[in-house]
Specification:
alpha/beta, 5-stranded parallel β-sheet, disordered N terminus
């Protein structure tokens, strides 16, 4: 994906559009792994995120009436909820989970699909992911889909009707950063829907690099929740995503092994005094 021909004209009004809805923030943040809902709330507020992901099988959003609910800490009137299928290992499991989410959230249809293939690495099962995506799109869900960094699979998910493709940067929770920028670049170049890096971000520089590559947004959870200071890290991630996007729109200078052209002027210099 190339920067716009006139970046200066787009920077100020630059916005993320997913399934026809506009968002100011390009940082999406998860709500798991915090010590309590209060810390979750403070981290989300510091991140500036407008979209929050929720693991339906692990987080109470009303299915357990006598327990604290995330809905109280992060009201849906303020945040766009993105129910996800974390912990699902088959298409059927994932579809059932998101049907439940739609009931709990009064017909909510924007969802994050992930179908895992291995409990050790949490690498996606792309065969089951494709099957689940077909069913969910057919049932009217707006599917944002976690996938591998395979450009062919990403394009197929887009063709099925997913509203965003979300390739991993590296394994979920690994904090290893972007291991294959070349595959991400291929996905970005060919996509007509938003490309959102999902999984593997460990620190602010990883988020900035993803945005500089041309990704439309970054989704993260562990990098913030397991930082020594989650609130400060959330703020750092906000700045990193914004800086990376600005750098992408500005267009970086070409890389050179060396340059014979100095950055300072070479004409009009004062002649040295003779001895």
């Amino acid at each position: 994906m190339n920067a716009p021909a006139n970046p200066a004209a787009t920077t100020r009004d630059d916005a993320l559009v997913i399934a026809g809805k506009t968002y100011r923030s390009r940082l999406l943040i998860g709500t798991g792994k915090y010590k309590d809902f209060d810390e979750t709330r403070r981290a989300v507020e510091a991140s500036g995120a407008e979209i929050v992901t929720v693991a339906i099988r692990r987080t109470n959003i009303g299915q357990n009436a006598n327990e604290p609910s995330l809905l109280d800490a992060l009201p849906p009137s303020r945040y766009a909820y993105l129910p996800n299928t974390a912990g699902c290992y088959s298409a059927d499991e994932a579809v059932r989970t998101l049907r439940l989410a739609r009931e709990l959230l009064d017909g909510h249809d924007l969802v994050k699909l992930e179908v895992l293939g291995d409990p050790k690495t949490l690498f996606p099962n792309v065969v089951e992911t494709l099957a689940a995506a077909e069913t969910l799109v057919r049932e009217g869900f707006k599917v944002m889909v976690y996938t591998s960094d395979d450009p062919i699979v990403a394009k197929r998910l887009e063709e099925i009707g997913c509203v965003a493709v979300m390739p991993l940067a590296s394994l979920i929770g690994s904090g290893m950063g972007i291991l294959n920028p070349w595959n991400l670049a291929l996905i970005i170049e060919n996509a007509k829907v938003p490309v959102i890096v999902d999984a593997g971000v460990g620190t602010a520089s990883d988020a900035a690099i993803a945005m500089e590559l041309g990704c439309d947004a970054v989704l993260m959870n562990t990098a913030v929740a397991l930082a020594n200071d989650p609130i400060r890290m959330a703020g750092a991630m906000k700045k990193a995503v914004e800086a990376g996007r600005e750098a992408f729109l500005a267009g970086r200078m070409p890389k050179k092994l060396y340059s014979g052209s100095p950055s300072s002027p070479t004409t009009g210099l004062m002649a040295p005094k003779s001895a």
